[in-house]
Design brief:
It is a single chain. This protein is of the alpha+beta class and 86 residues long. The protein has a domain of 58 residues. The protein is built from two helices and four strands; from the N terminus they run βααβββ. The strands form two sheets. It has a two-stranded antiparallel ribbon with strand order 1-2. A two-stranded antiparallel sheet has the order 3-4. Strand 3 and strand 4 form a beta hairpin. The protein starts with 10 loop residues before the first strand and ends with a strand.
Length: 86
């Protein structure tokens, strides 16, 4: 008798960078500024993600929480309790 044994394991990669936002941008407009200036940070984040190691699991935590998304990007204003998904 033959049987087939299968396994599906989920792995994720995580990377983060810091981006300097001009002082004249209000906290409520940071997401707009990031979208408009994606060319200043997107390649750095992609490169860092490419060089990161695979971690076992879903990669979900308090902020990375889009369980139905294949990829998730967010920003958090350092030293402030403010941020969101991009």
């Amino acid at each position: 008798m033959k049987v087939k044994v299968s396994n599906r394991s989920v792995y994720y990669k995580y990377a983060e960078i810091e981006v300097e936002v001009p002082k004249n941008i209000s906290i409520e407009k940071v997401d707009d500024w990031l979208f408009d200036n994606e060319h200043l940070w997107c390649d750095r984040l992609d490169n860092k993600l490419s060089n990161s190691h695979h971690e076992f699991g879903f990669g979900l935590d308090g902020y990375m929480n889009e369980k139905d998304s294949e990829s998730e990007t967010r920003y958090d204003v350092i030293s402030e309790n403010y941020g969101g998904h991009l």
